[in-house]
Write a structure and sequence with these properties.
The radius of gyration is 23 Å and the shape is globular. The chain has 18 helices and 14 strands. A hairpin with a 2-residue loop joins strand 7 and strand 8. By secondary structure, it is α/β, with parallel strands linked by helices. Helix 9 packs across helix 17. It folds into 2 domains: 226 residues, D-Maltodextrin-Binding Protein, domain 2 (3-Layer(aba) Sandwich); 204 residues, Periplasmic binding protein-like II (D-Maltodextrin-Binding Protein, domain 2), CATH 3.40.190. The longest helix has 18 residues. 43% of the residues lie in helices and 14% in strands. The strands form 4 sheets. A 6-stranded mixed β-sheet has the order 2-1-3-12-4-13. A 4-stranded mixed β-sheet has the order 6-9-5-10. This is Multiple sugar transport system substrate-binding protein.
Length: 450
């Protein structure tokens, strides 16, 4: 087996002399396309370095999957779970021309990785099992030009978690509209639902930091449900700005009211990361949390399955749309072992691997939320009605962020403006107008403005 450091040194040398086009050709070789004389053939015995954007609770699940892959194929996997500064570390490795072989992270990286040439176009028909992946899941790996630059691994939809014991104690119904949701949030904030005689509970939990654009990640559900949007898809890969529309303004002002009028939001929401937000729900500080289904296992253990319920998000004036994204497998450029990359991706698409990613032990986090393999049934595998609810929401109401070449700068600019508005000082209409101008410039820069 070749020494890992030797292989990495070889990769650095290869990338340093290849043009961007040849680097992409190396990726395509790993995806079943014909190689050219200038494309390095690699070493099928080289270990695969795999990164996932994961904390320890998910890393344990991935470790079992990769160990099973090695047993079946003999291809060794050097696995690294990275959570803090994931994007920064990937860019450092890109600068060093020493990329991992495979990266599993959210769909938000698709545009950046594609623009930087860290991944190339993939042929979905070239993968064994690719035909078993749903078209909707493949959509998570498709860029605005209609081409695929990743392979889907998992998908999901946001759902709303509510402290059932608090709601029943206060005699409130399961909320079905924004009005009923706000009424419940006010009750959780003012009516002492935990019965400790102190004003120390809040209605709605938000990990609304601007870091990686999480303000918009959280607010998008309410924005869409109110009839607003960030961009309008005009077809043909062209977009226009929608954040300053009357519907968007009304939605943003409604969200602003949660912070500034009813004051049902958790303290420090605008600086809170997801890591810091989770404990507020499970320790009884906040009673309503719109998040992904990956939190079920943690809250079952730390809070108690009987104390909270999972519902489809209540409808707003514009409907019940929620954020539905997922994780992709990114086949990184200039791997020493392109055939190994392909083998691993194909294994990850199998029902066996998909189910391993869904089934977790106590305290672990599932790494497949909803399977991308259409032959795998959530109902049969998990036998948990909460996951059935998640599946139904995904199929009926979930949508991703727009498939622009790179949505991250648009997401970041929008998050910063929303965060400013939610501090209760600035005028929402004026700030959204300024934001619209910035987004128009970004669309023009990316060549997709209309």
């Amino acid at each position: 087996m070749p020494d890992t450091e030797v292989m990495r040194s070889t990769r650095r040398s290869v990338i340093s002399v290849l043009s961007a086009a040849t680097v992409l050709g190396a990726v395509l070789t790993g995806c079943g396309t014909e190689s050219s004389p200038s494309t390095p053939q690699g070493d099928p015995n080289a270990p695969l370095e795999v990164w996932t954007r994961s904390q320890e609770s998910a890393a344990k699940v991935y470790t079992r999957i990769f160990e099973e892959f090695t047993k079946k194929t003999g291809v060794k996997v050097e696995y690294k779970a990275v959570f803090n500064d994931f994007d920064k570390q990937i860019q450092q490795r890109a600068s060093a021309k020493d990329l991992p072989d495979l990266v599993i992270t959210d769909t938000g990286s698709l545009g950046v990785f594609t623009q930087q040439g860290l991944v190339g176009e993939v042929d979905r028909a070239s993968f064994a099992g690719g035909g078993d992946v749903s078209d909707r899941a493949w959509g998570n790996a498709k860029t605005s030009d209609g081409k695929y630059h990743a392979v889907p691994w998992s998908t999901q939809a946001n759902v709303t978690l509510i402290r059932k014991d608090w709601r029943e104690k206060l005699g409130k119904p399961v909320p079905k509209t924004h009005e009923e949701l706000l009424d419940l949030a006010k009750a959780f904030t003012t009516q002492d639902p935990d019965g400790n005689g102190q004003a120390d509970t809040y209605g709605i939990l938000a990990p609304a930091t601007t870091d990686r654009g999480y303000t918009l990640w959280w607010a998008s559900n309410f924005l869409w449900q109110g009839g607003g949007d960030v961009l309008k898809d005009n077809g043909g890969g062209k977009f226009s700005v929608a954040i300053d529309s009357p519907e968007s303004q009304k939605s943003v002002e409604w969200i602003r009211g949660l912070f500034c009028d009813s004051k049902v939001m958790n303290p420090n929401a605008l600086t809170l990361t997801t890591t810091d937000a989770h404990p507020l729900f499970e320790t009884g500080k906040v009673g309503i949390y719109t998040t992904g289904p990956y939190m079920f296992s943690r809250f079952d253990k730390n809070l108690g399955k009987d104390k909270y319920e999972v519902i489809a998000s209540p409808k707003g004036p514009g409907g019940d749309t929620v954020l539905g994204e997922g994780e992709d497998m990114y086949i990184m450029a200039a791997s020493p072992n392109p055939s190994g990359q392909k083998k691993l991706v194909e294994y990850m698409l199998t029902p066996e691997a998909q189910q391993m990613g869904m089934k977790v032990q106590s305290g672990e986090t599932p790494v497949v939320r909803l399977p991308v393999n259409k032959n795998v049934s959530v109902k049969d595998v998990l036998k948990d009605p909460r996951w059935d609810t998640t599946q139904a929401v995904y199929e009926s109401s979930a949508r991703p962020f727009p498939a622009v070449p790179n949505f991250q700068p648009l997401r970041q600019k929008t998050s910063e403006t929303l965060s400013k508005i939610f501090t209760c000082g600035p005028d929402a209409k004026a700030e959204l107008g300024k934001l619209a101008g910035e987004l128009k410039k970004e669309l023009s820069t990316q060549g997709i403005s209309q």
